[in-house]
Amino acid sequence: MKIISWNVNGLRASIKHGFLDFLEKQNNDIICLQETKLQLEQVPKEFFDKIEKLGYKAYWSFAEKKGYSGVLTISKIDFDKTDHGINKKKFDSEGRILIHEFKNYILFNIYFPNGQMNEDRLKYKLNFYKALFDYANKLKDNNKKIIITGDYNTAHNEIDLKNPKANSERSGFLPIERKWLDKIISMGYIDTFRTLFPDKIKYSWWSYRFNARKNNAGWRIDYFFISENLKSKLIDAFIQNDIIGSDHCPVGINLDVEKGVLN
Question: What is the pLDDT of residue 258?
Answer without folding.
Answer: 66
